[in-house]
Design brief:
2 domains; mainly alpha; 177 residues; transmembrane; transport; TRAP_DctQ
């Protein structure tokens, strides 16, 4: 099961690379066409915006899995093991609440988005903003799994270190500031 999970996240990382590359190519091509030939591709402007939205929300799930989001690690690092576990439980409960609200908001907004189409591509806006289902659901599932392992005592010291930022090198810490 862990192998399937890892393959899924490898696929997501590849998808992020493709979205970023697609966005960069479309924007570069449009700049060349506008300045060199006084024309442009309207579809590239629209798709690059949508790629950016998808890139951001898919990347949020991948970053959450890797404990890469911002945190107050200096406070948590001062606590002992039980304090860190308590903070992890509270943190995951809050993440479940916020992500569930995000998922539900996407659900409520879906009929409005489905009735609207993009001006150039004609793509239903439900495809664009529906990425909230993936992000909200993905973060809820990750947090539920972490919460289950925390409550059942299956959390490892490496995971606690990742939560507090203690598993990072000096270079990685410097990148975050």
């Amino acid at each position: 099961m862990q192998r399937i999970n890892d393959l899924f996240y490898r696929f997501l990382e590849l998808l992020l690379i493709l979205l970023l590359a697609g966005m960069a190519i479309m924007v570069f091509l449009n700049v060349v066409l506008r300045y060199g030939f006084n024309s442009g591709l309207n579809i590239s402007e629209e798709l690059s915006r949508y790629f950016f939205v998808w890139l951001t929300f898919i990347g949020a799930v991948v970053a959450f899995r890797e404990h890469s989001h911002l945190g107050v690690e200096s406070l948590v690092a001062m606590l002992g093991r039980s304090g860190r576990i308590a903070c992890m439980i509270i943190s995951n409960l809050l993440i479940i609440l916020c992500s569930a609200i995000f998922f539900w908001g996407t659900w409520v907004q879906l009929p409005i988005n489905a009735s609207m189409v993009a001006p150039v591509t004609g793509l239903s806006m439900a495809w664009v903003y529906g990425i909230g289902f993936f992000t909200g659901g993905g973060c809820v599932l990750i947090a539920l799994e972490r919460l289950f392992r925390l409550i059942t005592g299956r959390v490892t010291d490496a995971e606690i270190a990742a939560f507090t930022g203690e598993n990072m090198t000096i270079e990685q810490l410097a990148e975050r500031t």
